[in-house]
C-alpha cells in the first residue's frame, strides 16, 4: 500500500520532476482508514493530490502523498426537475461531465474540459464560462482524519467563494473528499449561455443549444486557447481574476490613467480579467528558464521542456511584480504551491519601546550599526504557498515597506498588548479583496474588538480594515492545509500564545512555560525566543532563563528576540551565546527544510 521515494511526476500536469518520501493510493474509505492508522500517516505531513492539475511542488515532498482512486458514478431521480448524481473523488472531472451529458442531465456542461479529479471540485470550487462547482454541488462526503469518521457537508457548510471553500482553510488537512453529490436537471437544453462567447452560440446554431453542443463549443474554445497537456505541461489558469473595490479602481485611474473594466461582483466590487492585465503589461511569451507565459492564454504558465519549480515561481513572481507596477493590482496564484520548507523573516526584534528608545542616548540607542536598530516584534512566515504574519506591531508599516510585502493570507496574534497589535490598521491594504482572517485567543479577541472597534461596526467607515476574527485555543488548527500549533506561555500571570508551524516555533513575551507545553516543542528545528535583558523581569525571560529554556527544548538552532537596550550591542551579545544560539535582528531571514 505504501511506496517509498515515489516519483510523482506522472501525477502532476506541470510535468516537473518531483518525488515523495511516501506515497499511497486508496480505493475506498476502508483503505483510507487503514492508512490513517499507520505511523507513516501519523508522523508525517500528509497531502492529497487528486488529479495533480492545480498544484506546483516546489521541492521533493518530505512526507506522505495520498491519491484517491475511489471510482463510481450513479444517480437517482427525486422528481421530474431534480436529479442527483454521485461521483467518487477519484473520477476524472471531464468523465463526470461526459457521463451527465450522455444521460441527458444538464448543469455541468459549461465546465467541460476542466482537468483534474472530482475530489478537487469542492475544494477549489472549479468553474468556467459562467458556472462554478458551487452552483451544482449538493453535498460533499469526507473522511475526517482526526475522528476517522465520515462527515457530510451541505453546500452552505462548504462556504464556497471564488476558487475558494471551507476545504482550503479550516477543513484542509483534516477532511479528505470521498464523494461528491451534484444536483442537476433532466434536460438536454443548456440553461447557462450568458458568459462571453456562449451568448452568440444560439444565434449561430439557429436553435437553443443542447448541453452536448455547449460542451463541444467550450472544449473547442479551450483547445484553441490552452496548450495540450501532452505537449506542454501546465496547471491551467495560474492566477485568479482579482476582485477589486470600485473605489480602488477609481484611485488606480487617477494615479495611472488606466480605466480598468471588470464584471460586477456586488455593489462595491468588480472582478478584473487577470489575462487582460498580463496581456496589457506585455508579458505574453515571457520566459524564465524552461517556464513561459503562454502566448495563446497569458493566464497560463507552461513548461516548455526542462522547467524547474524555481523557473515557474520566478516567472510567476515577475508577472505579479510587472502587473503590480503597471496597474497597482496584485495577482494571487490559483495554483497551490506545495513546499514543506518554512521560510521565516523576522520583521522586528525589539521590545515594546523599540531601539533606539525615544530620548535615550545610551551606547546602544546611539549605535551606528544597523543590527542595533530594532523595531517592535513581528514575524513573517511563508510555507505551502501561504504567507502568515505573526503580530502586526506598531512598526508594521515600515517593516512591510522595507521587505516588500504585498500579500498576507492570515494573521496570528500572540496577545493584545499594543506593541504586538498596534499595526492592525495598517493591514487595510491586505483586505481589498476579502476580509483578512485573524486568529487570536478569547482574551486577545476581546481586546482587539475594543481597541479597533471601528473595524467591527455594522456600518463601517469606507476604507477601514475588514477582519474575519476567529477565536482559537490550545488545540491545533489548519490554515489552507498548514497545521498551526498554539503553544501557551505565561506573560507574568497572563496566558498568551506562541506558535509552532512545522519544525519552526515562535515564542515572545514569555516568562514561564509548563512542562506540557515544552513537550509540544519536542523535535523543533528552529526556535525564536524572547530574551529581554540580563536583569530579572517580572513578565519576560531574562537572558539566562532563555538560554536554560533553549537547553531544555534542544532545537538545532535558536534566535533570541524582543531585546531591550540593556542587552547591549548585537555583536557583543553574539560573543556571549552558545554556538547554536544567535541574537536576531530586523530583516533576518532563514529557511527550515
Describe the structure.
- With 593 residues, the chain is of the alpha/beta class.
- The protein folds into 4 domains: 2-68, 2-Layer Sandwich (Uridine Diphospho-n-acetylenolpyruvylglucosamine Reductase, domain 2), CATH 3.30.43; 73-225, Uridine Diphospho-n-acetylenolpyruvylglucosamine Reductase, domain 3, CATH 3.30.465; 233-338, UDP-N-acetylenolpyruvoylglucosamine reductase, C-terminal domain (Uridine Diphospho-n-acetylenolpyruvylglucosamine Reductase, domain 1, Alpha-Beta Complex); 342-585, 4-Layer Sandwich (Metallo-beta-lactamase, Chain A), CATH 3.60.15.
- Helix content is 22%, strand content 29%.
- It has 15 helices and 35 strands.
- The chain has a 7-stranded mixed beta sheet with strand order 27-26-25-24-23-22-35. A 7-stranded mixed beta sheet has the order 28-29-30-31-32-33-34.
- α11 links the parallel β25 (410-412) and β26.
- The mean pLDDT is 93.
Amino acid at each position: 500500500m505504501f511506496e517509498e521515494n515515489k516519483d510523482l511526476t506522472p501525477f502532476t500536469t506541470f510535468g516537473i520532476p518531483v518525488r515523495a518520501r511516501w506515497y499511497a493510493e486508496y480505493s475506498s474509505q476502508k483503505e483510507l482508514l487503514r492508512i490513517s492508522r499507520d505511523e507513516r500517516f501519523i508522523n508525517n505531513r500528509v497531502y492529497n493530490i487528486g488529479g495533480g492539475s492545480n498544484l506546483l511542488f516546489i521541492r521533493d515532498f518530505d512526507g506522505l502523498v495520498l491519491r484517491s482512486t475511489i471510482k463510481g458514478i450513479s444517480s437517482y431521480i427525486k422528481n421530474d426537475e431534480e436529479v442527483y448524481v454521485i461521483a467518487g473523488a477519484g473520477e476524472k472531472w471531464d468523465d463526470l461531465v461526459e457521463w451527465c451529458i450522455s444521460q441527458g442531465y444538464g448543469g455541468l456542461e459549461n465546465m467541460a474540459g476542466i482537468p483534474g479529479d472530482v475530489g478537487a471540485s469542492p475544494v477549489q470550487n472549479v468553474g468556467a464560462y459562467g458556472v462554478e462547482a458551487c452552483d451544482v454541488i449538493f453535498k460533499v462526503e469526507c473522511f475526517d482524519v482526526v475522528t476517522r469518521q465520515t462527515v457530510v457537508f451541505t453546500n452552505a457548510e462548504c462556504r464556497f467563494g471564488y476558487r475558494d471553500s471551507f476545504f482550503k482553510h479550516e477543513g484542509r488537512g483534516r477532511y479528505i473528499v470521498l464523494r461528491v453529490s451534484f444536483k442537476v436537471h433532466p434536460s438536454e437544453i443548456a440553461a447557462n449561455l450568458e458568459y462571453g462567447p456562449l451568448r452568440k452560440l444560439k444565434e449561430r446554431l439557429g436553435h437553443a443549444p443542447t448541453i452536448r453542443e455547449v460542451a463541444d463549443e467550450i472544449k473547442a474554445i479551450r483547445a484553441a486557447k490552452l496548450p495540450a497537456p501532452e505537449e506542454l505541461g501546465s496547471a491551467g489558469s495560474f492566477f485568479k481574476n482579482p476582485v477589486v473595490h470600485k473605489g480602488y479602481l477609481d484611485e488606480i485611474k487617477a494615479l495611472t490613467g488606466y480605466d480598468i473594466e471588470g464584471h460586477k461582483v456586488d455593489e462595491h466590487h468588480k472582478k478584473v480579467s487577470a489575462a487582460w492585465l498580463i496581456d496589457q503589461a506585455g508579458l505574453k511569451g515571457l520566459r524564465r528558464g524552461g517556464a513561459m507565459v503562454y502566448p495563446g492564454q497569458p493566464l497560463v504558465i507552461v513548461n516548455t521542456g526542462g522547467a524547474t519549480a524555481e523557473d515557474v515561481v520566478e516567472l510567476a513572481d515577475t508577472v505579479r511584480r510587472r502587473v503590480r507596477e503597471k496597474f497597482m493590482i496584485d495577482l494571487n496564484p490559483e495554483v497551490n504551491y506545495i513546499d514543506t520548507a518554512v521560510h521565516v523573516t523576522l520583521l522586528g526584534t525589539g521590545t515594546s519601546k523599540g531601539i533606539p528608545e525615544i530620548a535615550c542616548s545610551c551606547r546602544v540607542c546611539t549605535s551606528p550599526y544597523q543590527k542595533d536598530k530594532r523595531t517592535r516584534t513581528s514575524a513573517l512566515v511563508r510555507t505551502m504557498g501561504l504567507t502568515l504574519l505573526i503580530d502586526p506591531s506598531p512598526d508594521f508599516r515600515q517593516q512591510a515597506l522595507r521587505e516588500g510585502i504585498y500579500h498576507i493570507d492570515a494573521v496570528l496574534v500572540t496577545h493584545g498588548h499594543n506593541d504586538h497589535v498596534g499595526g492592525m490598521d495598517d493591514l487595510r491594504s491586505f483586505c481589498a479583496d476579502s476580509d483578512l482572517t485573524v486568529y487570536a485567543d478569547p482574551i486577545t479577541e476581546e481586546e482587539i474588538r475594543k481597541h479597533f472597534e471601528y473595524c467591527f461596526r455594522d456600518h463601517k467607515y469606507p476604507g477601514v480594515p475588514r477582519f474575519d476574527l476567529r477565536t482559537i485555543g490550545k488545540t491545533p488548527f489548519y490554515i489552507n492545509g498548514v497545521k498551526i500549533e498554539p503553544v501557551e506561555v505565561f506573560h507574568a500571570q497572563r496566558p498568551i500564545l506562541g506558535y509552532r508551524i512545522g519544525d519552526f516555533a515562535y515564542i515572545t513575551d514569555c516568562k514561564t512555560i509548563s512542562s506540557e507545553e515544552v513537550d509540544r516543542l519536542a523535535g523543533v528545528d528552529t526556535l525564536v525566543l524572547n530574551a529581554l535583558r540580563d536583569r530579572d523581569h517580572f513578565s519576560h525571560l531574562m537572558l539566562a532563563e532563555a538560554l536554560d529554556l533553549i537547553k531544555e527544548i534542544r532545537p538545532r538552532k535558536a534566535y533570541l528576540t524582543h531585546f531591550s537596550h540593556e542587552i547591549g550591542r548585537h555583536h557583543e551579545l553574539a560573543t556571549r551565546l552558545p554556538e547554536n544560539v544567535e541574537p536576531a535582528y530586523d530583516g533576518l531571514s532563514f529557511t527550515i527544510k
